[in-house]
Amino acid sequence: MRALRHMAAVVLVVGVMSFAARGFAESIWDYEAVNALGCGTHPKVDAVPGDDNKVTIEGIVIGGTEDFVDRDGVFSMYSIWVQDDLDTKGGIQCWAGPWNKGIWSGYPIINAGSRVRVEGWLANHNGKVFINDRHSTALMWDVDVLDNDAGMPAPQVIPSVGSCNYFDQTRSDGAELWQTRWVRLQGLEIVDGTWGTGNALTVSDGTDNLTMLLSGMGDFDDHSAPSGVFDALGVFDQEDTNNDGDFHEGYRLWVKIMSDLVHTAGDANGDGKIDGGDLALWQQNYDPLGIGNNTFAMGDWNDDGKIDGGDLALWQQNYNPLGGSAVGGDFAAVPEPATLMLILTGGLIAAARRLRKDN
Known about the structure:
With 359 residues, this protein is α+β, with helices and mostly antiparallel strands. It has helices at 2-20, 28-31, 101-104, 276-284, 309-318, 337-358, and strands spanning 55-63, 78-83, 91-96, 115-125, 128-132, 142-147, 156-157, 182-192, 200-204, 209-214, 230-238, 251-255, 261-262.
């Protein structure tokens, strides 16, 4: 028992030291706590601005100043989305409007993957707690870039749309758990909406529907909508403008660019399964020398211009014949190495035949 108490004390001290080392004792997760209405409960949220109520946060930028909003648009704004990199929970948006452009126009362009420190005041906004300038030129927040090359975090995989598209005050599950985090939703299909830069679409994985907002700064107009089942990476966000007395809605996945909408490696035909149908396409298009104009849909899942054993390894790794929202299904049914060698040999024979035919 004494050893357990000692261990608990060590854990507590280490936890306190990790925050003390950053110059503050509370985390982003603490600031994001909400009441039953969905409004921030931390005493510094909407508090009178002053030194005693100023907060300091540090983290990784998951949405930069040019990723989601236009600094020079009709309604110009300066904003970053910051994820706590010392915890698996907590993220916060920092925002300033055009009245403060004379100040923030001198601030740097900040890219996703940078590590920053922000000092400012907390406020409620349509269901989320954020740092803003309170619409006052005297209250612009300060930002320091600590590391331009810290790198983006790995996306946190949300189990399903059904597990994230509802309000839970405790934040043990539901949308508030994922607020302003870099996440990945799997097995999605577009079920409603018009494709295009800046547009909101409805996507579903079969468990529930969710809004997927395409950034107005993205390249979506240069591409067609993804066909079949796909995964989406983005910032989990909320903008509840219903004015119905609470803030339990308006959850969305905000996607930056087209390359953040991806098919899971191995699913060549986009049917949400990684099975024999995809393997047949791989074998049919087998091209280890990269002679053809190979694409994901043909079997080039690692995007190296070749359709070869590297792609086959990804297919085997993600094999999931039952489909669903995540890869990694019945691995017992994955062909054994000997069988895979026969498949590879078949691919070589098919490729040789195509070369003879072409010559």
